[in-house]
Amino acid sequence: SMGALMDLTGLRWNQGFFQLLWKAAISYVTALPLMGLGLLIGLGMGWFFDVPNLGNPSHPIQELIQNATSIELFLLFALACVAAPITEEIIFRGVLYGHLRQGTSKWGVAASMIFSMVISGAIFAGIHPQGAFVAPALAGLACGFCITREWSGSVFPGMIAHGIQNASVLALNVILFQM
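Structure (tokenized):
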């Protein structure tokens, strides 16, 4: 049914606007330590293993920022802070995480959640072009958003938290590369 599909994908709107903002703030606060843990894992990979391109994390947007006009910066912010979080949260925390949780529900809640978070987070990190150093941090961030999806039953708080994260990183890049 449509209701079951909305529940499975986390697209059910089950809160008021201020409750959504509160859950988004909790989502972001939950995801940051996991991202930090991922960053430590990335540093450990560099310390113990010879990982190619580990010391050169970059994103194609950084090249665009260097000579971007105001309109181009606006479009980059719209893409990175609105379109990407909506799309990625629906795909990774909605469809993929929801499907994995449903398929592993017989394993018990904890095992199913951990497996689903790790797989969803690893694939999420893998599609981003920043490289091996940043991948564990992105996977940690994704796991934090999976926890929010599980806790709230919705991908909407994660969308907002994801947008805040992307806006923070993009703003920092604009400051660094346009000055």
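Residues 80 and 166 are 6 Å apart (CA to CA). The longest helix spans residues 70-103.
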